[in-house]
Predict the structure.
Amino acid sequence: MFVFPVLASAAPNAKVSVSKGYASMVFTDLRDVAKLSYTLVYDSTRGQKGLEGGMKFKSRTSRTSRKQILGTCSSGKCVFHKGVKNVQLDVTFTLRSGKTVTVSKNI
């Protein structure tokens, strides 16, 4: 008798890149994820800045992304932060089982 190995699902992961005043975040391997929360902190010419966010998943998905302005917006006008560097993304994935997985990325 041959027994097929059971492969564990891939651990959730995150990637971040910065271009032209925006941070692009990609979250992958989300099949077992119920929700995620993130903080993004970075240095700019005006000091350290940051933001936080999150999302819940009603149905199973494998990938999602989020694009975030690195600046401020008011009355339809946006001002981008200058000199963005030392970007750190911290993501906490809450699995459907209730366990949590935390991933940190720096660029």
Remarks:
- Residues 2-7 have pLDDT under 50 and may be disordered.
- The chain has no helices and nine strands.
- The radius of gyration is 17 Å.
- The first strand starts at residue 13 and ends at 19.
